[in-house]
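Entry:
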Amino acid sequence: MHVRQLGEDVINRIAAGEVIERPASVIKELVENAVDAGASSIEIVTAAGGKTLMRVSDDGHGMRQTDLELAVRRHCTSKITEDNLFDIRTLGFRGEALPSIGSVARLSIQTRHQDEDHAWKIAIEGGVETPVIPAARRMGTQVEVRDLFFATPARLKFLKSDRAETAAITEIVKRIALAYPTVGFSLSGADRQPQSWPAARGDDPRMARIAQILGQDFVDNAMEIDAEREGVRLTGFAGLPTHHRGNAQHQFFFVNGRPVKDKLLLSGLRGAYADVLARDRHPVVVLFVELEPTLVDVNVHPAKADVRFRDGQLVRGLLVGSIKHALVQAGHRSSTSNAAVAMDAIRASGFSSTPSASPRGDVYRTSAVQPRAPRGWDVSDFAPAAMPNAAGLGFADAEDLIALQSGEMPAALHGLVKPSADARANDVEPDQGRMSLPLGAARAQVHETYIISQTDDGVVIIDQHAAHERLVYERLKEALAKKQVARQILLIPEVIELPEEDVGRLVERADDLIEVGLCLEAFGPGAIAVRETPAMLGDMDIRGLVTDLADELAEWDTATGLREKLDHVAATMACHGSIRAGRRMRGQEMDALLRDMEATPLSGQCNHGRPTWVELKLSDIEKLFGRK
């Protein structure tokens, strides 16, 4: 079989297969071109999930006639030169997008530069180019793509439903919009409800754009991140651990303004939240990495979705350290949405503040709460607000009314108003000073599981087991950090066969692994001998641990797996060593627990990511009872 040169049309279709995976890929390339062109407003129109129509219009600086002729040819670009391939400061740079799109679809471009008297138009259909002709258009560019993959019908079979493709386009535009808050974006078409994100203005346009896309709820429950190390800066917002999601769709990373889904960054994010989130929950973050373009390679993926940092460990360490620092600074802070969820649950259960019709009229109408003098625990607080005239009431109702007016208890209420138990043991006298503290003053314990505390403007409900579990866990971690991890010597070393490259990675990190209690050495060219293991882990699957470490080092070049296992053991010890549900607590114990929570980092959630406390504002409670 002879080697032969492929035709230009076939080359373009092969390139299209790498760059143009689905309609969302086309939108990504075209919107990035619009951003690079300095556009302040970008309009996107689609139909049938982008399969039949995609139109992107912008008000950027446009192209001249000669530039338009070259733009649709492969590897023609204005964004890089031959000597600055590693100094890329734009989103696009290869010059492959437009010719790739034109080879598999019907492409037309209208553009006008400020130096031109009128616009110019060019069309490409299945790789066949037509001459440039004059056109009428304002300043900027409009790119229209119709009948995607008509030239390669087999590719159409791999596309998803119109709804799925429409959602993918929306996700792509959201990510680019987050990176460029001062640019306005609009999405419309026959396959969607119109959406728009106006250009953000003001002192903090980035925060305004985040609120537009992720909602004010995220802004209210986010921690600001701003850290720098050795020329790498990380900014943005990370959600509180109690503000989490069931998937990773709400994690947005940007490197020098480029939306990416980088494995190194995702790994660092998991490591930062490892102690505060369950494995099946995911944090919400919007994070921006800024560094010199020469320190990152963006030319490692056809769709430019992945990047490669020159010093990946520096970036990962900055990410993990800055988020953990923010979590510590957040202290006992918990998601404000917890209270909203609680109030919604109460309403969904059928609770209503609307008074129902009653033949007694307003006999039992509630009144504004007034302070009363202390009474015995067996005395009722029943005190109707107003007494109507007995006329018009039934015989039995009139009897009850006369009894109430004379200060006696109606026969129908005998046995109902007396408290069912003596609650004095768990009642704690309020202290105005403690009530002004974040978690307030403990007042009572209910169901021997939950502590009720009172603040100046509401009520806080604390899960005593979850709260104390976090406190014990943090103390255990602190103890582990202050002294070397104890190791146990194996009577017979465990020999594990591994590929030579995995053995080399493990031996290279042997000194780091000793610090966390794992002593190993090479045992020939294709095996590892494990001689000591962390005493905290006790009986363990050494083979599985070493294999996982080898895989992790190959993928992330880090050895966090063992540390996570040690933290997991500490978390298990904390769970069994903390105050259990069902234990009766004294008032002093409850208050001491609240004060410890206020002083302990990450106490807003337990080791599994569940909230340790929920606050109900007095205004919300009053709404439930129709007082507001």
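The radius of gyration is 33 Å.
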